[in-house]
Design a protein that fits this description.
87 residues; mainly beta; 3-stranded antiparallel β-sheet; 0% helix; 68% strand; elongated
């Protein structure tokens, strides 16, 4: 199962977040030459045991329709140690 392993910026503790923990939604659409480009966001927020707030956003861009053409991971409050979400 795909996941991301993070290291807290404040205390160095590691935590693993499974893909199933994310809330998924379409956040935008643009008409382009070969049809519609849709942007999807999968978001997750948590608090480390040290009370540091950690947010993760996994963005997927689908263009043309049915084809992922770009993936992006944005993390605040932690560093990415290992990431299998983008593979």
């Amino acid at each position: 199962m795909s996941s991301v392993i993070l290291e807290c910026d404040a205390c160095g503790k590691t935590l693993s977040v499974q893909r199933t923990a994310f809330t998924h939604r379409a956040i935008g659409q643009d008409e382009r030459e070969m049809g519609t480009e849709t942007t999807y966001e999968a978001a997750f927020e948590t608090q480390c045991v040290c009370q540091n707030h950690i947010t993760i956003k996994h963005l997927t861009f689908e263009y043309p329709e049915g084809s992922e053409n770009h993936l992006e991971l944005l993390v605040a409050g932690a560093k990415v140690v290992q990431n299998s979400l983008l593979s």
